[in-house]
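User: I want to check something. If I give you two sequences, will you return the structure for each one separately, not as a complex?

Assistant: Yes, each is folded on its own. Here is the first sequence with its structure:
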Amino acid sequence: MRLAKFLAHAGVASRRGAEEVIAAGRVTVGGHPVTDPALDVGESDRVAVDGRLLPGPEPRVVYALNKPLGVLSTARDTHGRRTVLELVPDEGLRLYPVGRLDADSTGLILLTNDGELANLLTHPRFEVPKTYLAEVGGAPVTDRTLRRLREGLELDDGPTAPARVRRLGPRTLELTIHEGRNRQVRRMCEAVGHPVIALTRTAFGPLALAGLAPGSWRLLDQAELERLRAAVL
């Protein structure tokens, strides 16, 4: 196994973060400093970071969580506000959220210690779809508005890719996007004159929110993990 992957699986950091740790000269293998992230290592090798011997790869886990309103989708908060990590059992694992949601948004978010999978799921190249239910303000949503969202919009950080959009009610939209820009769905709706009043992520790739109450979580089973990995292969 490549050293960077070994560190990521041991919960040190994401794959990219592990490469930075290695490049900084903080890693030793068998007591010798190593700066090559591609170095092949095995479970019997003595790998240490900052002098601390790593016990070996952690078991890979992925939690699905229904994030409640007001909870931050970050690993920690300097102001002591509640985060998603406080809602799932960490079992001593280094978990981090995949696919952030604003504090004022709710719905499906993933938490994992698998840095490689997290990077793949959020990388734009793989276009993993994310579906949202948006309650919007303004006049009832028109067919013209739906066409504009489906064709793509010009935002302040560039044009969006076309979205899949369904009107579920006069002011209720279901939107599926493949990008992950900051507050993208809110900005798209605002751009067409419909500010978002409430926003819930209902699906992330092949995973659906259905069955999870706000604040509830479940550990993904093997079949779900395989479908999730298949989405980025």
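And separately, the second sequence with its own structure:
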Amino acid sequence: MNGFLIIDKPGGLTSHDVVNRVRRILDERSVGHLGTLDPMATGVLPLVVGNLTRLAQFYTASEKIYEGVIRFGFSTDTYDAEGEGTSAPREAALSLVVLQDCSRRFVGVIEQMPPPFSAKKIAGVPAYKLARKKQEVELKPVEVEIKEFEILQTSSSVASSNHDLATFQARVASGTYIRSIAHEMGQQLGCGAHLASLRRTAVAEFTIADAHSIEALEAAMRQGSATSLFVHPRKLVPQLPSVTANDESAALIRSGRSVNLPEMSRAPQIKVFHGQRELIAIATRIAGTLFHPGIVFAGS
């Protein structure tokens, strides 16, 4: 079983929890994810199944889109709603104009401090393991790119009549922590803040419209139609053009041989298919129409 499966991750599960559940459902050991989502967060979690896990290298720098809510009035040690408060709750009473003005400071290439409860490593140890033991976490700022970050509206929480909640949309490059944006906004505005909720709506070319619940996958598996939920392989790695090889060329490609393929653009790399759905290789141009299969999906 080979392909890309987009799961709508529920809250309360780690990304690894989802991978383990999908492994059991599909009875497939080779399953991995493209980009961790925090346990609290929901939304798009792309999973790579079977021999197509080798395509993961094309998604290491994927753009991501989020929507969520920031609560102003106090900060937490995890920078989100699951942490312990690190400042006394106070009235924020921030206007939409003030929040939107502050949000603009985060757009662009900036230096961002990762949260202490994160997978960033300190002397080989994940920061969150040190933070859980109440040990000192000394992280360094990293350069990230925030392409869009917009505060959409404010509202009141149940616990307060003040406008202490702000909904937002963000489009960011890989490696950006939305939790850190929320925390740093609270610092700049002098009232403290943390991420109240987060939903990822897109990773690379995959959107929430492509996503399926774990329950839907279980139902499809019982009906013998799990692969019908997989992303059509011709939609994968859209930056590479697709070429369909005939039977003779496909056999040569499967054995790692260079072949002449139908003339396409002058793209340095292409996806090679046998038929409409069987992705058999990622090939690199040698010269003219001669391509060498650098990545062969054996047994696809």
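Because they were folded independently, the notes below concern the second chain alone. The first strand starts at residue 3 and ends at 9. Residues 240-296 form a domain with the Archaeosine Trna-guanine Transglycosylase; Chain: A, domain 4 fold (CATH 2.30.130.10).
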